[in-house]
Amino acid sequence: MSRDVFNFYYSFRVRYSEVDAQGIVFNAHYLTYFDTAMTEYMRHIKHDYVNEVKDKNEDFHTVKTLVEYKAPIHFDEIVDVCLRVKKIGTTSLTFYIEIHPHKKDNILATGEVVWVNANQVTHKAAALSKEIINKIELLEN
């Protein structure tokens, strides 16, 4: 996919602690990259995640992750993690993610993460708030 379909991205430099003996990012770190970008996305749309959890006793649970590795990412490389909400469900958000070299269009990795909003006492799915849906739709549309 082209970077043009994304309204949000988070850039960073790959650290030495994230690479293997070949100087390539170790596979498990891709999920950390995705998670960091999702956190920054929430910050960008001004969703007060910490207080939302405290006030409503609801939190997102990750129920699905998918990573497809397209090309290696190397130590000290600057990358952009491009992210968009692909689907808003009644209780869930599906994020589509691509990692690109900084300000370039070729894809290094793609992924998907599904979050389900859940009551922290019952651990049952809970409806997404209208507030978060509106904030996401404002950015994505």
Helices and strands, with pairings:
Blueprint: E1 8-13, H1 29-44, H2 49-56, E2 58-69, E3 78-88, E4 92-101, E5 109-119, H3 130-140
Antiparallel strand pairs: 1-3, 2-5, 3-4, 4-5
Name the descriptors.
3 helices; 35% strand; 141 residues; single chain; alpha+beta; 5-stranded antiparallel sheet; 25% helix; Thiol Ester Dehydrase, Chain A
Mean pLDDT across residues: 96
| Distance N to C terminus | 17 Å
The helix count comes to 3
Oligomer: single chain
Number of structural units classed as domains = 1
The main sheet orders its strands as: 1-3-4-5-2
Stretches with pLDDT under 50, minimum 5 residues: none
Biggest sheet layout: 5 strands, antiparallel
Q: What is the CATH architecture descriptor?
A: Roll
Helix content: 10-25%
Rg to the nearest angstrom? 16 Å
CATH superfamily: Hotdog Thioesterase
Which sequence of SSEs, written as H and E, runs from N to C? EHHEEEEH
CATH topology: Thiol Ester Dehydrase, Chain A
Shape: globular
Report the β-strand fraction as a percent range: 35-45%
**What's the level 1 CATH class?**
Alpha Beta
Structural class: alpha+beta
Task: Report the count of strand segments.
Answer: 5
